């Protein structure tokens, strides 16, 4: 007998409420194995591939790529017993899934999270004859269930798939509203409950149509962009920001970099100004621990952290993300260089996991790679400071009373004035500047 299970969208990161379906790796009729990747989703933090905890045959995909789905919503149905006696009836059975009785079963965690899955089985037909003694262990005969349309995405019509969340689709089905006939009023043309209710009541919807010759385009705010915007607004309006600036001659640092590139120990290791800045931040944070602390509003406490989880702001095709180098303060310069290379490579591929972007203590953002001199960055929520690196440029500089062309870098530091006083912020920035201006200073720390 076919046994159908529904695979729900799970919470892949603490506090996740919804995610966008990016693309499916399976289709109805495909056979899958335990832990096989079946779908790629985009949360507010990262793109994540989800494995399925069962083996069987995919009978139905409930959502289309591009849709936003709430956590807990079934996104796929699988027959985990396709070789059962009633296997030929799999298709109509899947169609009747919504009308069949269900029982819940715990889904075993696969990628660090737990979730509920739904197992659907047929009850024995009322009044059925008892099974013979030799067949007591056989499954009960399935009850006849009239085929019913599942609560799932509306089938494409002429290549067009209406965009709507599963609860809205169910409402449209219950009210007899054809989603293909509606134009969504939410961002990106997503159909809302109000759109469906207006259609059911016969109330006309005022459509906003942009002709093909328009020089404007609209992009839905979702995923990383939505998360970044919310985080920046929260930080800007809760933490009193102070930004200080420092211009330094980093010629010695750049000369030291060239020496390292020629050394045997650093052969094949990519050492960049960001590598030196990361090391400098870790060393300077030990002398000014307030910079690595955080304000806990709920507990009315300042939390000092005896470790540095260093965030690196990275521009990716999905938007700005801030993956972390864990325990960066315990790493050598070479280890930091290797960790930064691995971190940025993964970020550019869009494979950074939500766990790798959580629980940072201080962040570095490098606008110098874009040729920009400096900036006034906003602190990441949960931290108290962010250091900005500008572009390293040849500029006139006074050296021993003479004007010479030197490699010059501008630094800026934004910090939370509730946690970090002006003196502490200035001392930290001065320490970072001294270490970058003369790497030999690290011997004194």
Automatic annotation (TrEMBL):
Main enzyme class: transferase
PROSITE patterns the record matches: BIOTINYL_LIPOYL, LIPOYL, PSBD
GO cellular component: cytoplasm
Gene3D superfamilies for the chain: 2.40.50.100, Chloramphenicol acetyltransferase-like domain, E3-binding domain
Requisite cofactors: (R)-lipoate
Domain Peripheral subunit-binding (PSBD): from-to ranges: 163-200
Lipoyl-binding domain sequence ranges: 4-79
GO molecular-function terms, A-Z: acetyltransferase activity; lipoic acid binding
Superkingdom of origin: Bacteria
Keywords: Acyltransferase, Lipoyl, Pyruvate, Transferase
Pfam families to which the protein is assigned, alphabetical: 2-oxoacid_dh (PF00198), Biotin_lipoyl (PF00364), E3_binding (PF02817)
EC number, UniProt record: 2.3.1.-
Similarity field: Belongs to the 2-oxoacid dehydrogenase family.
Protein name: Dihydrolipoamide acetyltransferase component of pyruvate dehydrogenase complex
């Amino acid at each position: 007998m076919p046994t159908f299970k529904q695979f729900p969208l799970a919470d892949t990161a603490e506090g996740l409420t919804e995610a966008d379906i990016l693309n499916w790796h399976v289709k109805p009729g495909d056979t899958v194995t335990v832990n096989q990747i079946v779908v790629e989703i985009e949360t507010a933090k990262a793109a994540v591939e989800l494995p399925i905890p069962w083996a069987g045959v995919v009978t139905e995909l409930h959502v289309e790529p591009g849709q936003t789905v709430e956590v807990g919503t079934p996104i796929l149905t699988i027959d985990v017993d396709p070789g059962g006696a009633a296997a030929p009836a799999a298709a109509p059975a899947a169609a009747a899934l919504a009308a069949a009785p269900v029982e819940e079963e715990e889904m075993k965690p696969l990628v660090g999270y737990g979730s509920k899955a739904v197992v659907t089985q047929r009850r024995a037909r009322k009044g059925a004859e008892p099974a013979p003694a030799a067949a007591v262990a056989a499954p009960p005969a399935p009850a006849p269930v009239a085929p019913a349309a599942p609560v799932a995405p509306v089938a494409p019509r002429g290549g067009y798939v209406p965009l709507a969340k599963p609860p809205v689709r169910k409402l449209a089905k219950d009210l007899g509203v054809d989603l293909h006939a509606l134009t969504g009023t939410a961002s990106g043309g997503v159909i809302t409950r109000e759109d469906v209710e207006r259609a059911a009541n016969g109330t006309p919807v005022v459509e906003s149509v942009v002709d093909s010759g328009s020089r404007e385009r609209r992009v839905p705010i979702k995923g990383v962009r939505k998360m970044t915007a919310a985080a920046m607004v929260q930080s800007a309006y809760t933490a009193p920001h102070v930004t200080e600036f420092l211009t330094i001659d980093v010629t010695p640092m750049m000369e030291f970099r060239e020496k390292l590139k020629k050394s045997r120990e650093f052969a094949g290791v990519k050492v960049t100004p960001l590598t030196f800045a990361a090391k400098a931040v870790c060393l300077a944070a030990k002398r000014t621990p307030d910079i690595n602390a955080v304000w806990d509003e709920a507990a009315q406490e300042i939390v000092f952290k005896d470790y540095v989880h260093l965030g690196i702001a990275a521009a990716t095709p999905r938007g700005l993300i801030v993956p972390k180098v864990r325990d960066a303060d315990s790493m050598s310069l070479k280890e930091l260089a290797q960790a930064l290379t691995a971190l940025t490579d993964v970020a550019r591929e869009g494979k950074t996991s939500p766990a790798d972007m959580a629980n940072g203590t201080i962040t570095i953002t490098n606008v110098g790679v874009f040729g920009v001199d400096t900036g006034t960055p906003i602190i990441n929520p949960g931290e108290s400071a962010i250091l900005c690196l500008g572009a390293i440029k040849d500029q006139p500089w006074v050296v021993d009373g003479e004007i010479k062309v030197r490699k010059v870098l501008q630094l800026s530091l934004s910090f939370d004035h509730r946690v970090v006083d002006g003196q502490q912020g200035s001392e930290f920035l001065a320490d970072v500047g001294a270490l970058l201006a003369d790497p030999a200073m690290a011997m004194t720390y």
